TrEMBL record:
Belongs to the cytochrome P450 family. Its cofactor is heme. Keywords: Heme, Iron, Membrane, Metal-binding, Monooxygenase, Oxidoreductase, Transmembrane, Transmembrane helix. It is a single-pass membrane protein. Its main location: membrane. It is found in: Membrane. GO terms for cellular component: membrane. One of its GO terms (molecular function) is heme binding. Pfam families: p450. This is Cytochrome P450. It comes from the Eukaryota.
Length: 100
């Protein structure tokens, strides 16, 4: 049970990142919104909190020069539905510009 609980969280984050990388406009929109959410972290579910913090502090690029449309979204069968191929990302420090 413990394995399934932790695996589902990491798998959910991996799927969410995969979808965001395949849709760069959505990634930018999410990063712009996440700054406010991070400040109110106590209201977020654990997976949302992880995503919010990762989006707020980093830009993300696919490793090996892959383009978003080349990202393999094939599912692997098992106790949980995870990606057949692991998602390999390069984190780049993100410095949002605050506009008031």
């Amino acid at each position: 049970m413990l394995t399934a609980g932790s695996h589902t969280s990491s798998s959910s984050v991996e799927w969410a990142f995969s979808e965001l990388l395949k849709n760069p406009n959505l990634m930018e929109e999410a990063q712009a919104e996440e700054g406010g959410y991070v400040l109110e972290y106590h209201l977020l579910l654990p997976i949302e909190l992880v995503l919010a913090q990762l989006l707020y502090h980093f830009d993300w690029e696919l490793a090996s020069g892959l383009k978003p449309e080349q990202l393999d979204m094939t599912e692997a069968n098992g106790l949980t539905i995870s990606k057949k191929r692991n998602l390999h990302l390069i984190p780049i420090p993100y410095h949002p510009s605050f506009v008031e």
